[in-house]
């Protein structure tokens, strides 16, 4: 049995749903990804992908190419994820092994786990031990640039599909617009669907408090990233002043922010980003730390990886659901009445369709 990685291939891909979107801090021109594909000496193939949007393609491709060269030069088996991370952390320390370089490692880590699952003919959630819990998902989107009609179309479509919770972007230049959008969503959805709001770090503390207090009658379930991810005192003040549940974590490359927010009793939901943290092991380590302080895990974006991982920890809260890759993979995740159905295929249980993969030029 040859577990060694003999080839690493890099691709870009664009969602069939690609269109300009915006939150309070970013205008996003396209929904794009990079896909890392590895192959063992025995021909087992694994894939991992990262969400890139339109940002820094040359930098992302450079980081992925450097990592590919490192892996092929030093030789790693698909089950040596920890050894590779340790070695690459040493290699990248000079220019900073948190940030973009960790994203690159995260993508190949996910691909290695995919290949390992395929070799053993088991889905990831079975390899790591299942908690046998159903994983709820919420419908995400609600972008700032949506018209009211587009917003209501999206949230009511989620409800029609059986979703029991939706998330809406806030942080408009005019707070009244946010209030009106949230109010119309509540009117359209009724009381049976939870509504969350996400400012993407685009607000200040006083406005976050004002918005939270104003929309209290709407029953907002939680407030994501109201202020900068470095403003730990701000999170503490908002939580203490309003009592609203706070969620954050998607911008973090390690657990330092989580530790500080725990110290301040200023966080209710931990939102690890699988790729930013550097893959499966670090994602799970962060969830274990959060659980030690009774903070549930509600990861950022990657539902096709997060749903199986949530099934392996003791404190799963739910997963964020976008449909962005559904039309360009071979086996989209099934959502049944607001809960994700675990894929039973080996590894992560899906692969990108070849016709949508564009090789990254050397």
Describe this structure in words.
The strands form four sheets. The chain has a five-stranded parallel β-sheet with strand order 7-8-9-10-11. Strands 5-4-1-15 form a four-stranded antiparallel β-sheet. A four-stranded mixed β-sheet has the order 12-6-14-13, with helices on one face. The protein has helices at 57-74, 81-92, 100-120, 124-127, 148-160, 175-189, 205-214, 232-242, 256-263, 274-277, 280-292, 303-310, and strands at residues 5-14, 21-22, 27-28, 32-40, 45-51, 135-139, 165-169, 194-198, 220-224, 246-248, 269-270, 319-321, 334-336, 339-341, 358-359. Strand 7 (165-169), helix 6 (175-189) and strand 8 form a beta-alpha-beta unit. The relative contact order is 0.15. It contains twelve helices and 15 strands. With 362 residues, the chain is of the alpha/beta class. Helix 1 crosses helix 3, helix 2 (81-92) runs antiparallel to helix 3 and helix 7 packs parallel to helix 8 (232-242). Helices cover 38% and strands 18% of the residues.
Protein traits:
362 residues, single chain, four-stranded antiparallel beta sheet, alpha/beta
What's the short story on this structure?
The protein has 362 residues and is an alpha/beta fold. It is built from twelve helices and 15 strands.
Task: Furnish the topology, listing elements before pairings.
Elements: E1 5-14, E2 21-22, E3 27-28, E4 32-40, E5 45-51, H1 57-74, H2 81-92, H3 100-120, H4 124-127, E6 135-139, H5 148-160, E7 165-169, H6 175-189, E8 194-198, H7 205-214, E9 220-224, H8 232-242, E10 246-248, H9 256-263, E11 269-270, H10 274-277, H11 280-292, H12 303-310, E12 319-321, E13 334-336, E14 339-341, E15 358-359
Parallel strand pairs: 6-12, 7-8, 8-9, 9-10, 10-11
Antiparallel strand pairs: 1-4, 1-15, 2-3, 4-5, 6-14, 13-14
